Structure formats: structure tokens, C-alpha cells
Amino acid sequence: MSDRDYKDQEEIYSKVVRAGRRTYFFDVRSTKADDYYLTITESKKFTNDDGSFHFKKHKIYLYKEDFQEFGETLKEVTDYIIDKKGDEVISDRHQSDFKKEENRSADDDAAEPNHPASFTNVNFEDI
Which domains does the chain have, with CATH numbers? Predict the structure, then answer.
């Protein structure tokens, strides 16, 4: 094994954030030119009907030239969410006492342009 092959496998720097069934990995890697870049991996655990489980992973590669704009945009978007909705989690998955509005139908929800029912799901697993 060459020194370069060993370096590819070497952990340069890594942080892990565990969040329920999801785990986020922030890993510093090295390019062939020996510069650093960041990979962000989301790993989500799924349980099969037979009790076995598997993980689905999604990965983002982030290079230094994009750090500033990415960081600024991430901060802007997360600040927007907190400003509009606060930092309390509002979800029937996260709160046992969450109650949906009884007098709204699914058709009413889908008619709203920013409602999740009107969103087209995109799968990024092949990127």
C-alpha cells in the first residue's frame, strides 16, 4: 500500500451528530493535490418487517471555494425557519400531543403552494 493510499483512509478530522434515527457525519478528507474538503453524510436507520435493519446514506461534498457562501446561506435559511416557526419542534412524530386541524382536508393542504402535499419528492441517492 502506497503512502497516498494509506492517507486516503486516514481520518483527518471528523465530527458526529446523532439525531434520533439520523446520524450526521462531518468528515475532512484530502484531495489528490493534498488539499482538504468536507463531506457531510446523513445516515438514516430503517427497520425491516423481519426486525433486521439497514441504513440509507446521502452525501454532500463541499469544497473550500464554496464554504463561505454555503455557510452564509445555511445560516440565512436556518435563521428564517427559527424566525418564522420558532425553535420548538412541531410534528406528530416528535410530539405525542400534536393535533392536526380537524376542519381542514388534504385537498385544502395540497392547494397551498408551499405545503408539503404540493411538493414533488426528489431522491438524491444517485448523486
Answer: 3-115 (3.10.450.700)
State the SS3 of the chain. CCHHHHHHHCCCEEEEEEECCEEEEEEEEECCCCCEEEEEEEEEEEECCCCCEEEEEEEEEEEHHHHHHHHHHHHHHHHHHHHHHCCCCCCCCCCCCCCCCCCCCHHHHHHCCCCHHHCCCCCCCCC
pTM (global) more than 0.70: no
Per-residue pLDDT of the chain (127 residues; tens, 9 = 90+): 455 554 454 679 999 999 988 999 999 999 989 999 999 999 998 888 898 888 899 999 999 999 999 999 999 999 999 999 998 887 656 555 556 555 555 555 555 555 555 445 555 554 4
